[in-house]
Amino acid sequence: MLPEGRSIETFKQSVTQQLIKDFQWDAERVAKIRIPLLQLLEDEINWGMDRNPTALFASFYRLDLGEAVICEVMDWNERPQAAAKLAALCLERAAQKVWLRWTFGAADSARG
What we know:
The chain has 112 residues and is mostly helical. It has one domain (8-111). Helix content is 81%, strand content 0%. The chain has six helices and no strands. Helix 3 packs across helix 6 and helix 5 packs antiparallel against helix 6 (79-111).
């Protein structure tokens, strides 16, 4: 159940904004892209592994994905599967961050 006054659409938008922030994407570019967010993440991870692993791992760090999780996925999966699993984990973590912010933000507002 979403906090009062929040909708699924707002949640999706907030998750997208979280990913834009953590991956340092151009918001206008993301708004124009017509592929699913999960596919965008997978493409970004594949691109980053080849061309800019430092920036990719900085994005994982900002997202607070966890080094142990990243290493486990990369150690136990071939490259395409690793990128797909990391994309799913990034999306899940961004959703968790939004959910926690909403949940604890709503609790703080109710108390204050």
